[in-house]
Write a structure and sequence with these properties.
alpha/beta, 8-stranded mixed barrel, 12 helices, 9 strands, 19% strand
């Protein structure tokens, strides 16, 4: 069929272009701020990959990451993201300002987690950038982590032993098992945006958010709410005890120069009658 043939040729060309972009720094990272909702300060960035294709124009991850996952390109793509995110974190340090000395979050794919080179890729990235390991936080979803739970646990322990932090992304939407919260050295739970979207009109979603906050607090972990888009959502999350958040209400993913000079909006201090804001709890030792 001519149409099928054209689609196959287009896919092969896109795969060729992606391979070339990975090998020749043709990709780019955008950085979405993560805000301390209590102190009104920049807490961290999440690095998100973009592809400014020279002919097709800017491509979102949804247009090329699935292709990378179906081929052998997701591992070198993930390694490139690790290196570039670490280098940019160091550039932020050199520039000074609020972006300096902040944690950098990077997402992990299933294929990269299943491979043999992830720990080496992480170590190489932070070593070449001269970045302290605790400034790097790797995000992995429950679904990805549970695909090969035993192998994932061993690898994540090895990475954590190097001082790198770990976060569970989209918490509550995947193949959940509370056992891994006890067995794995996780530092952060990220509340999926679906709970944030629903909590204003759904008491069950609000209860889930409050339960996640209590669970994380008992385990000495941070909680980050994703997808905050309205002031009403922000108020509800702060009332539920969520300490950190990210979303379009604060900023879309930013190019490096804008991220370097970005400042969070002024936030009204959370009411705490008769109490001062406690210091942030240190990450758990596991």
């Amino acid at each position: 069929e001519p149409v099928m043939h054209e689609r196959l040729l287009d896919r092969r060309q896109l795969e060729h272009d992606l391979r070339d972009a990975i090998e020749n720094d043709g990709l780019a990272l955008a950085y979405q701020p993560i805000v301390d909702l209590d102190r009104g300060e920049l807490h961290a960035f999440e690095a998100l990959v973009r592809w400014p294709h020279p002919e097709r124009g800017p491509l979102s991850p949804a247009e090329f990451v699935p292709l990378a996952e179906e081929t052998d390109l997701i591992v070198p793509l993930g390694a490139w993201v690790l290196r570039e995110a670490a280098r940019q974190a160091r550039r932020f340090d050199d520039l000074g300002g609020q972006a300096a000395k902040r944690v950098m979050h990077v997402n992990l794919s299933a294929r990269h987690l299943e491979g043999d080179g992830l720990a080496a890729d992480v170590t190489r990235a932070i070593g070449e950038a001269g970045l302290r390991p605790e400034r790097f936080e790797l995000e992995v979803t429950e679904t990805v982590m549970m695909q090969n739970a035993e192998r994932s646990a061993a690898l994540l322990h090895a990475i954590c032993d190097r001082g790198v932090r770990l976060a569970i992304d989209d918490f509550g939407t995947g193949h959940s098992s509370l056992a891994y919260l006890h067995d794995l050295p996780m530092h952060t739970l990220k509340i999926d945006r679906t709970f944030v979207d629903r909590m204003l009109d759904d008491a069950r979603s609000e209860a889930i958010v409050r339960t996640i906050v209590q669970l994380a607090s008992g385990l000495g972990m941070r909680v980050v709410a994703e997808g905050i888009e309205t002031t009403e959502q922000l108020a509800a999350l702060r009332a539920a005890g969520v300490r950190y958040g990210q979303g379009y209400l604060f900023a879309r993913p930013l190019p490096p120069d804008e991220a370097a000079s970005w400042r969070p909006p002024l936030l009204t201090p959370r009411p705490r009658p008769g109490r001062t804001l406690p210091p942030e709890a240190p990450p758990p030792e596991r």
